[in-house]
Structures are given as structure tokens and as C-alpha cells.
């Protein structure tokens, strides 16, 4: 038999899903809900805790509890890699018209807010090994955040690493003010004569760090999907390592593999 707080959560959940409590609506105070359901405030809090864990409501300190607004979902599939490579050779106007985020979300450029930050650092052991360089070799770390203008959280947390000497022939590639770069990383590499031949993506899932949960605005109990992308050029050399942290509650990964006929 369901417990009292589960029955209350069922009632509120039904109101949210049928539109009785629309996105952004403020829920009655806990004391008012307690009177309405004829239960104690601790019972109400248990019900609200369930709904919060499901990502249906947000509690804002000093403001109250609100129905969570649905976030834009992202569909990331492996066909985007060839799409990125094809786009790298297109005219600038075509490259500037749409990017990977628009491709994955269905949004348009005017819907988006973009942030980029560059810094140089000495390669730590794992990245030095990935690139096949000595530890301490200067890398360019690029941090990216893109979000829908109507939402507070980015679609992902992205850190991309390049060997500085590999791209230094084009000073524009060291300048964060040139972002967002039409055509993305594959076009940037193309400007210094590098062609990407294959991309390896490793996908894992784990609980978020407190910082990740806060920045991605994750409901309690939501995991993150971590995608480590390694790009190789036509000579088999690693030319880019990217770590993409995706919110598990609004990201779908789709892998399509075409098989050879017998």
C-alpha cells in the first residue's frame, strides 16, 4: 500500500503532467499543502523531495517551490562527425549559418548564448600520453559553454586540448575572441593543413561533481555522461582531445552503424 507522501506525490505529479500546474508555476507553501492533504509538513516535504529527485520541481531558497521548466533536449549521433568534416570545406557563410549545437538541438543561432575561454598549460601525464608528447609540453585548453537563451544551464561542459606548436602557424587559432569559429575545430585544423581521418569517442557515466551539478542545473540523483573524444589526422597523429560532460536528464546518444552486406 502506498505511503501517504507517495500518494501526495502522485497527486502533484498528475497535476504537473496534465497542466494543472504548468511549467514555472509556484506550488503552494508546505503548510498550505499540509492543510489541503490533511497531513503533516514532514510528510509534504517527503513528497516534494520525491518530485525534486524526479526533476519535476525546483526549490529556490527564499522564493518557494516551482514546477521545473522543460529543458531543450540534445540528440548527439555519430553521423555528426562526417557532417563536421564536410562542413569544414564549405564557404564561410555556409559554415557560419549553423553549428554543431544547432544540429543537435534543432535551435537556430539566435536562440543561443556562447562562451569560450582559452588558456595555455603544460600537458599533464594523461594528455601527454594521449598526444605522444613529453609531459609539460604546452597545450592550448579551450573551454566552451553554449546554452539556450531562455534557459540558465549550458547543454554541456566542454574542454578541448590542442598542442600549441601544432596550430601556432595560424595566430587566429590562439585567439578566443575569434570564437565561435565557423566550421568548428575541423575547420580550424584545416587552416594549418591538418585533415582529421578518424575520431574515437569513449562514453562513460558517473555521478556529477558538486560543481558540475550546479553548472548543469541537474536534478538530484541525475548522472552525467562523459564523452572523451580523440581526433586523429591522416598520419595517425592525435590532434585534438576533448572531454564533453553531458547532463543525463536531457541528452540522448544515438549510434548508427552501417554493416557490409554478405
What can you see in these coordinates?
This protein is an alpha+beta fold and 262 residues long. The chain contains 10 helices and 10 strands. It has helices spanning 4-18, 30-37, 41-53, 80-87, 92-97, 100-105, 125-131, 164-167, 184-190, 210-216, and strands spanning 57-60, 64-67, 74-77, 112-122, 138-148, 157-163, 196-206, 224-233, 238-247, 251-254. The strands form 3 sheets. A 6-stranded antiparallel sheet has the order 4-5-6-9-8-7. The longest helix has 15 residues, at 4-18. The radius of gyration is 23 Å and the shape is elongated. The mean pLDDT is 93.
What key phrases describe this protein's structure?
262 residues; elongated; 10 strands; alpha+beta; two-stranded antiparallel ribbon; 10 helices
What's the layout of helices and strands?
Elements: H1 4-18, H2 30-37, H3 41-53, E1 57-60, E2 64-67, E3 74-77, H4 80-87, H5 92-97, H6 100-105, E4 112-122, H7 125-131, E5 138-148, E6 157-163, H8 164-167, H9 184-190, E7 196-206, H10 210-216, E8 224-233, E9 238-247, E10 251-254
Parallel strand pairs: 3-10
Antiparallel strand pairs: 1-2, 4-5, 5-6, 6-9, 7-8, 8-9
Helix pairs in contact: 1-3, 2-3
Amino acid at each position: 500500500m502506498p505511503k501517504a507522501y507517495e500518494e501526495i506525490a502522485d497527486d502533484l505529479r498528475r497535476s504537473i503532467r496534465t497542466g494543472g500546474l504548468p511549467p514555472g508555476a509556484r506550488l503552494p507553501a508546505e503548510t498550505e499543502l499540509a492543510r489541503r492533504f490533511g497531513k503533516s509538513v514532514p510528510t509534504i516535504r517527503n513528497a516534494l523531495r520525491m518530485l525534486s529527485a524526479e526533476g519535476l520541481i525546483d526549490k529556490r531558497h527564499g522564493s518557494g517551490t516551482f514546477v521545473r521548466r522543460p529543458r531543450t533536449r540534445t540528440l548527439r549521433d555519430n553521423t555528426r562527425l562526417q557532417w563536421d568534416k564536410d562542413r569544414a570545406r564549405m564557404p564561410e557563410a555556409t559554415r557560419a549559418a549553423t553549428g554543431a549545437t544547432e544540429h543537435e538541438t534543432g535551435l537556430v543561432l539566435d536562440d543561443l548564448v556562447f562562451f569560450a575561454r582559452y588558456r595555455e598549460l603544460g600537458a599533464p601525464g594523461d594528455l601527454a600520453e594521449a598526444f605522444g608528447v613529453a609531459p609539460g609540453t604546452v597545450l592550448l585548453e579551450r573551454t566552451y559553454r553554449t546554452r539556450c537563451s531562455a534557459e540558465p544551464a549550458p547543454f554541456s561542459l566542454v574542454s578541448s586540448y590542442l598542442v600549441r606548436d601544432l596550430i601556432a602557424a595560424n595566430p587566429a587559432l590562439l585567439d578566443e575572441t575569434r570564437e565561435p569559429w565557423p566550421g568548428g575545430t575541423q575547420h580550424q585544423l584545416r587552416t594549418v593543413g591538418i585533415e582529421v581521418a578518424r575520431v574515437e569517442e569513449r562514453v562513460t557515466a558517473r555521478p556529477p561533481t558538486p560543481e558540475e551539478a550546479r553548472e548543469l542545473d541537474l536534478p538530484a540523483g541525475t548522472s552525467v555522461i562523459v564523452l572523451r573524444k580523440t581526433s586523429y589526422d591522416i598520419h595517425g597523429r592525435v590532434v585534438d582531445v576533448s572531454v564533453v560532460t553531458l547532463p543525463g536528464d536531457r541528452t540522448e546518444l544515438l549510434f548508427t552503424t552501417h554493416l557490409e552486406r554478405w
